[in-house]
Amino acid sequence: MPFQPVKYYQTGTFTVGNRLLPPDLRTVQSTQRRNNSLNSGHRACQGCGEALGARYAIDAAMQATGNQVMAVNATGCLEVFSTPYPETSWQIPWLHSLFGNAAAVASGVAAAMRVKGKRGVKVIAQGGDGGTTDIGFGCLSGMFERNDDVLYICYDNEAYMNTGVQRSSATPPTARTATTPAVGARPGNVFGTGKNVPRIAMAHRIPYVATASVSNLRDLEAKITHAMSLHGARYVHILVPCPLGWGSAPEDTIKVARLAVESGLFPLFEAHDGCVTSRTPIRERVPVTEYLKLQKRFAHLFGKARDEERIARIQAMADANIAEYGLLEG
Length: 330
Ligand SMILES: Cc1ncc(C[n+]2csc(CCOP(=O)(O)OP(=O)(O)O)c2C)c(N)n1
Ligand code: SF4
Fold this sequence. Notes:
The protein is of the alpha/beta class.
């Protein structure tokens, strides 16, 4: 299915249906063929970006493979809200691994499928940023360097949400969490920490790495669809706002995610074999303050005396991304 960007003018609404396109070009969610992989009845918070991202990602993967997907899920919100034993909202073969070993378990599942001759079955591992960038990082790197035939999806809500919003190595500077300085001259996460896991994945020279966001759902679908057409280790890193942990309004989840992209703080790109091959240009550049102000985790930056110095440093991070990925070109 060739990639078709969202064409809002076709429907006159902000839906992502592309309903005036021929059926084979429509989004997965607009078709009756969608799998409803993550079905209703789960216990995610209102406006949960992770639930939205997972539904779109796994439905796209199911469609791309003719429903031949098995998923391994690290411990975290996605596992807890979807599968309080003995119930589950998943409509796919799904395994719960430990918190830190989803990538290793998925590698084992892929090996088992290969031994059984079930080459058509595609394996996905998925987890939050804590399970991916911190505790599961060793297993993930091993999966990458062996080039195991697994797509790993990280749903990045920038902290350990399931256990009460602890800082992870994906938490941005100045963001307040339960484990960052709460008081003092500079509350919130410090600068100079954290890691860029999409770039680290690229350094393994695996076949495919992409970033995606729940603000750009058609783009997200297209990237998952493309990932399912490839073999070997693949990594998709999706920004998924968490209203509870970010202190944002549930109805603002898409808006917040869009501002992260449009400010340059979260660049959308694809990389093949370690090289960036495409990026999504910013349509309407916004200052980072537009993004930060919607979230209580950054409220201390906008107190009686605005923390101009740290706001400027965050703006500099966005500017650096815009320059590095050429996000204003084209
Ligand atoms: C070895 C181990 N340590 C700690 C925990 C407790 N624990 C369960 S979920 C979780 C946080 C998950 O955070 P993240 O991976 O970022 O996913 P999110 O909930 O934010 O989606 C923690 C610390 C655990 N299950 N296993
Ligand atoms: S805490 Fe955040 S990630 Fe977890 S279910 Fe609620 S909104 Fe989703």
